[in-house]
Write a structure and sequence with these properties.
Elements lengths: L5 E3 L14 E8 H5 L6 E2 L13 H13 L8 E8 L2 E8 L1 H11 L29 H9 L1 E8 L3 H12 L7 H6 L4 H11 L9 E3 L7 E3 L13 H15 L7 H12 L8 H23 L12 H18 E3 L1 H16 L37 H17 L6 E3 L8 H10 L16 E5 L18 E5 H7 L4 H10 L5
Parallel strand pairs: 1-2, 3-5, 4-6
Antiparallel strand pairs: 2-6, 4-5, 7-8, 9-10, 11-12
Length: about 500
């Protein structure tokens, strides 16, 4: 190690920014620097890639024993990314989050040292059970002066940073699949994590705290069986939901395909890699998906919440959204009620409807018999094409029997009348408003569905001339989705017409 490559954190900014190459510098950082409000901040929780595993209190206390004893044991090296913003620098902790946060939390008074013998250091230095503020002055100084070895990286791209974290610094650790996906730097990974758990958390993922002694948190709108153990479970649920919607949920999902997709769409040249591409994806797909999911999950009656496991809730949402897109409108409470009726009907072990069916995609006429269908409630384990295919097969079968019971409203694909149709009807009405009989100028006419289009084709809400009346633009806006008969009653009550 050359001396000129060794950098003390206190003078680090004097040595950075002198090259555009990807370089690294050896150095160290003091605890005082890490905890001082006047020091340039080091981001200790870069959300796109830092592991969410929460260190146990006993682990944090052992980190402090290493600092206080200041013997042969040392805190493992930190890895810090240097990011230049105009003429200033900011630092991002790539690896060492738990080590650093353990020290910072202790200095900030968030926990005490344990009452164990190894924290009686001898020579009158008994720090058992003490918080930082209660320590002798010389021990406080020793902690603040403690220096941790670090490696500073300049000019790393987001992709290089993720690669460094996943494939170099953590290649011997067991990282869960979602931890790897969150390590892929990009707009989508950031949104998933923030939406699921952080400042921009969506109302769908609201937390409540239990009344028990453990004071554990759980999701308000889902079952208590939806784990919140701090390893990105909600991130994974949301990431899967977005993947399934974008790639066709009936095709299923695997961990590897999911990870490859997250990587590919955010890589340079990927379809969601730029801000404009991602903004369009968010507005057209993610934002309406989240709004629909919230309306769906919050419509589930409280007595059925216990059934809202991660996969069941995803299928409830995605099949409902498919119906809405296919037919034009979905009455969510009616659909939710029917979904759970189908769930109970095909899970019943007395009538055993499933015993006459096979799992979707298995061979019933070929060289091997088809695989026996399981009870419906047993299908919500794996998210492969066979499981999802069987779930949707049952739902499709019930839909074909009674479409109305699912709450679908088949809308006319034609949303508006043509200008020629409106003018023709206006002239047939004597150039007067259909509702009030007042004269209308051409510039003020508006075509209106007498039976609202939102009522659906079955109830007469068609975009046909026989359902067209012409009124003023003002009254057209006021009528909204009201039936013409009801609107006339309102106008009569207001003495607008007699």
């Amino acid at each position: 190690m050359e001396n000129e490559n060794f950098i003390y954190c206190e003078i680090a900014e004097q040595s950075f920014g002198k090259t555009k190459k990807t370089v690294s510098h050896n150095g160290d950082v003091s605890v005082d620097y890490l905890t001082s409000k006047s020091s340039p901040s080091i981001e200790t929780g870069a959300r796109e890639y830092q592991r969410e595993k929460v260190a146990r209190l006993s682990w944090k206390q052992l980190i402090m024993l290493t600092v206080i004893s200041n013997g042969y044991r040392k805190i493992p090296q930190l890895h810090i990314r240097v990011i230049k913003d105009n003429e200033t620098f900011r630092f991002e902790l790539v690896d060492g989050q738990q080590r650093v946060s353990s020290i910072i939390d202790f200095v900030n008074g968030e926990y005490s040292l344990p009452n164990t013998d190894n924290f009686n250091l001898g020579n009158g230095l008994d720090v058992r059970g003490k918080k930082f503020e209660d320590l002798p002055k010389n021990i406080k100084t020793q902690i603040l002066d403690y220096r941790i070895s670090c490696l500073w990286y300049e000019n790393l791209s987001d992709e290089q940073t993720a690669d460094l974290f996943i494939n170099v610094l953590n290649n011997t650790n067991t990282m869960k699949a979602q931890e790897i996906r969150n390590a892929v730097r990009g707009f989508l990974s950031t949104l998933i994590r923030n939406t699921a758990r952080f400042e921009e958390r969506h109302d769908l993922f609201e937390r409540v705290t239990s009344d028990g002694k453990s004071k554990t948190q759980h999701l308000k709108h889902f079952s208590n069986g939806f784990s919140l153990k701090g390893r990105m479970e909600v991130d994974e649920w949301l990431s899967e939901l977005i993947y399934l919607q974008d790639n066709g949920y009936r095709n299923g999902i695997s961990q590897q395909r999911h990870t490859n997709w997250i990587t590919d769409v955010q890589a340079t040249g990927g379809k969601y890699s730029t801000e404009s591409q991602f903004s369009e994806f968010y507005e057209l797909t993610i934002e309406p998906l989240l709004a629909f999911s919230y309306d769906m999950i919050t419509s589930v009656p409280s007595e059925l919440k216990y059934k809202l496991s991660p996969m069941l809730s995803q299928m409830l949402i995605l099949y409902g959204l498919e119906l809405k897109n296919n037919y034009g409108k979905l009455d969510i409470p009616t659909y939710v009620k029917k979904f759970f009726k189908v769930h109970d009907k095909w899970s019943n072990t007395k009538n055993k409807l499933y015993s006459n069916e096979i799992m979707w995609g298995t061979d019933k006429n070929g060289t091997k018999p088809g695989e026996q269908m399981e009870p419906f409630n047993k299908l919500f384990g794996g998210k492969n094409v066979k499981a999802i295919g069987t779930i949707t097969y049952v739902l499709d079968k019930e839909l074909s029997i009674d479409k109305d019971s699912f709450g679908v409203v088949d809308l006319d694909v034609r949303k508006t009348f043509s200008k020629a149709q409106i003018i023709q009807k206006w002239e047939e009405q004597g150039r007067k408003c259909f509702f009030t009989g007042d004269s209308l100028e051409l510039k003020d006419i508006a075509g209106d569905h007498y039976i609202p289009r939102s009522w659906g084709i079955a109830k007469g809400g068609v975009t046909e001339v026989e359902n067209l009346v012409v009124t003023s633009k003002k009254l057209n806006l006021r009528k909204m989705n009201m039936h013409g008969d009801d609107f006339i009653k309102v106008l009569k009550d207001e003495m607008v017409i007699v």
